[in-house]
Amino acid sequence: QVQLVESGGGLVQAGDSLRLSCAASGRTFSTYTMTWFRQAPGKEREFVAGIVRTGVTINYRDSVSGRFTIFRDNAKNTMYLQMNSLKPEDTAIYYCARARDTSAIISQRAEGYVYWGQGTQVTVSS
Questions:
Q1: I need a labelling partner for 49 at 20 to 30 A (CA). Which of 19, 57, 94, 126 fits?
Q2: Distance between CA atoms of residues 116 and 45, nearest Å
Q3: How far is the C-alpha of 57 from the C-alpha of 9, rounded, in Å?
Q4: What confidence tens digit (pLDDT) does each residue in 93-121 have?
Q5: What's the first-to-final CA gap in the chain, in angstroms?
Q6: In this predicted structure, what is the pLDDT of residue 26?
């Protein structure tokens, strides 16, 4: 059983930065694509960023590209999301997720991920 634990969320002002972490249990972290999703109140869960197992390929949703950076440390079984220039519209619960299989595809659909963390709240005030 894989467990994912997010941390690093909080309440910040517009323009501030936060770094989220996702710590994974088990020995297979380095084998799988990992992603960040987020869900705002009353909205569907949406893809934020994804990174393949080697870190060579990374995808971002358009609205965060240039402001957010996803990276991973396979030796520490941890993935990160550095969020700069935060905006009120970034307010959401952020979830990390592990891919369902070991392909190098970064799916932007939640159905492609089988393990999820409990989420960490990010609130950006204007």
A1: 126
A2: 12
A3: 25
A4: 999 999 998 888 999 999 999 999 999 99
A5: 40
A6: 86
